[in-house]
Each structure stands twice: as structure tokens, then as C-alpha cells.
Amino acid sequence: MHGFVTVPARFLVEAEWALQMSHREYAELLGVSRRTIIRWQKRGGHVPTERMLTLEGALEAVSPSLATECRRLVSQDPTVPASDAIVDGILRAAATALGTSPEAVRPAVDAAFRAASSKGVSVQAVVLRLVPAG
User: Is 48:4 a contact under the CB 8 Å cutoff?
Assistant: First the structure.
């Protein structure tokens, strides 16, 4: 069971627009009421991670950039495991900072993820802001 992620109102509006859906269709896609969609689009909201994963799948075909932003938002949920690409980016950044190889820093990075997970903190959300994409 996943938790919730904080989603800005503008993202939810842009996603609906990109999908070319009515409030009713968008609400059905996300499995929430029309009233919830309207509230989220006015103020942002704490959206269940499962709903964001559904939205990511729908956005992938029509707006890869919004799908990427959706994945970034989902990464705020500490119950979602880090993707291989995120872990590789963390390893490369740590290795570069320490002047060593990614293999040499892997035990420390793994320990940091375990410690963060036990405290309910998302290391990947913090690292995504620090590690350049690519």
C-alpha cells in the first residue's frame, strides 16, 4: 500500500488538459469524485500514490514531460522503491564527489536508503533535486 504525494494544482490542471478530458472523465480515470478533482485543481492536494501512478501511465503516451514530472512527484512517497536509474544517478554522483567508483560507494548508499526507509523519509526525493538528470 502506497501513501500520498503532494501535488501542485497547476500540475493537475496541465495533466487534464494534456489528456483532453472533461472533469468527469479525469475523475473516472483517477477513481475520485469530480468534486475532488476540482478541489485538487484549485489548491493542489495530497493525492494517493496509486492515483499518480495511474496518471503517469495515461500521460506517458500524450506528454512524456508531464509523465516524467509525475514520476518525480511519486518519488516523494517513501514507500515507493527508487528506480534503477535513480540509484545509478546517486551512485555516480556519490562516486564523483568522493573520487572513487560507484561500486565502492554502493554499500553506503544502500545503508542510507535502508535508514531513510525505516524512518519514513524519501531519500530519492531529496537526491532527485541534487543529482542532474542524465
Answer: yes
Structural contact between residues 78 and 120, judged by C-beta atoms closer than 8 angstroms = yes
Per domain, the residue ranges of the chain are: 4-74, 84-130
- The model's pTM is 0.63
pLDDT tens, per residue, the chain with 134 residues: 468 888 999 999 999 999 999 999 999 999 999 999 999 999 998 999 889 989 999 999 899 999 989 988 887 777 776 667 767 777 887 788 888 898 888 888 777 777 766 666 666 555 555 555 44
- Element (H or E) spanning 16, and its range? helix 9-19
CATH, domain range 4-74: 1.10.260.40
Nearest to 54 by CA among 29, 76, 79, 71: 29
> Distance from CA of residue 29 to its chain's centroid?
18
